[in-house]
Amino acid sequence: MRSFAEKGIIAALALVLSGCMSLAQDGRSTLPEQTSLAHFPEQTQTQNLLHQLPGPQRKVSIAVYGFNDQTGQFRATNTGQTLSRAVTQGAGSILVKALQDAGNRKWFTVVERERLDNLLKERQIIGEMRRRYLGEEEIDPNALPALLFAGVLLEGGIVGYDTNTVTGGAGAAFLGIGARTEYRQDTVTVYLRAVSVRTGEVLTNVQTSKTIASQSIGASAYRFVAFRELLEAEWGITANEPDQVALQQAVEKAVYGLVLEGVELGLWRFADMEATQALMSTYRAERDGVYDASDVQEAVRLAGSLTALKVVEREDDDDEGL
Questions:
Q1: DSSP summary character for residue 56
Q2: Cα angle vertex 253, ends 251, 254, to 5°?
Q3: What is the pLDDT of residue 30?
Q4: What residues have CB less than 8 Å from 65, skipping those under 6 apart?
Q5: Residue 309: left if φ>0, alpha if ψ -120 to 50, beta else—which one?
Q6: 195-213 pLDDT, tens per residue?
Q7: pLDDT at 297 (0 to 100)
Q8: Which secondary-structure segment (H or E) carries 99?
Q9: How far apart are the C-alpha atoms of 208 and 250, rounded to whole Å?
């Protein structure tokens, strides 16, 4: 028979473990549910910002030749440095996707330049096959029209990846029963600039950062509950925010800032400048440090609601005029 104190120790251990488990289930930085099925990732906060952008006065043709990792960092482990890069090497693909998400494909016409050699080779094959089998000395422009060209180039890349910018933790133990938590934060920074193809002038540039959080929670017990009976138990969970998702959000935020900064400088315009004054005010407040990033989502949502309301009112006025 175990004594009352021994039962109390076991009950306390169960409470500690269950409390840590509930914290892990309710916290944002916990591990996601595991599934064996392929799925589409959830839209990020910055992706929603891009989708909510009002339409432009006219689309901008834009080209991305490369958006590379300029940090040169390799992934570090507890045993040393590995040959794997610290950040993904596919940032160019993330940037192209973000450009297409801006205003739900209303803002930019993105032309393929990152793998231009493959595109030109395929067009040469088409031309050669038509000459050989159709006898065309001059290729029919309806079958192989001219390539689109861009008026704006996007340059830049990943310019910073700082590890352990914030570290911390806490723990406590009593009678061999304890719990602990540890926290670590990294930061990724991207730089994006728009260049005029006609003059070579740098039109505007944007720099954004995103933190990458890692958290671990654990509990342990080490206690003699009876003569020659030792209780040992340990539980823990670690959650790491994916580096790729953090980089994606930084790139999407950069594209969002590039659009609004271009409107601010008069490089391009919204279709309805009057209805987007609230959106521009929100952007200026965040850029100048008045708003925090967590305040922007609600402000943009309200600004989008006001814009939609004004459009509906204008359509109603037009109907009444008819």
A1: B
A2: 65
A3: 47
A4: 113, 114, 153, 155
A5: alpha
A6: 999 999 999 999 999 999 9
A7: 61
A8: helix 91-101
A9: 6
